[in-house]
Design goal:
By secondary structure, the protein is of the alpha+beta class. The chain has a three-stranded antiparallel beta sheet with strand order 1-2-3. The chain contains three helices and three strands, in the order H-E-E-E-H-H.
Length: 130
């Protein structure tokens, strides 16, 4: 009987440790994602960027983005999303075309895909930061 109680206490302790650890992990991820909203996106000076294709990356777990941005004659002519690891952020990929059509990087986020939107915009900013 004593062995049974010891096993139950050990199992209960392990469960508590797992729950607390998971809670801490989720809180950390949430803080990282919420911090994305506060990062300022400064418009690049396209006139100072030579023609070419520039790679940019950004990530905030669980979202990771790699983009190639093409510049021709001081204009963004193409934004290609090379990699986009996301949960439900697929709708944010429309920002690639919006960046080209509006010729700006500091755009509003796509509803329902806020974190992926911010990571995409920050990856483009990274590509154009020389």
């Amino acid at each position: 009987m004593k062995t049974r109680y010891k096993v139950l206490i050990i199992v209960a302790a392990v469960i508590v440790i797992i729950v607390v650890g998971f809670s801490i992990l989720l809180n950390s991820i949430n803080q990282t994602l919420e911090g994305l909203v506060n990062i300022e996106i400064i418009e690049p000076k396209l006139t100072e960027i030579p023609n070419g294709v520039y790679r940019g990356t950004n990530s905030a777990f669980p979202v990771k983005v790699v983009v190639d941005v093409e510049i021709q004659n001081a204009r963004i002519t193409k934004v290609k999303i090379v990699e986009h690891q996301q949960g439900m952020g697929l709708p944010a990929e429309v920002l690639a075309d919006e960046i080209v059509s509006r010729q700006q990087v500091n755009l509003d986020c796509v509803a329902g895909a806020t974190y992926s939107s911010r990571v995409i915009l920050l990856a483009v900013r990274d590509a154009l930061t020389l």
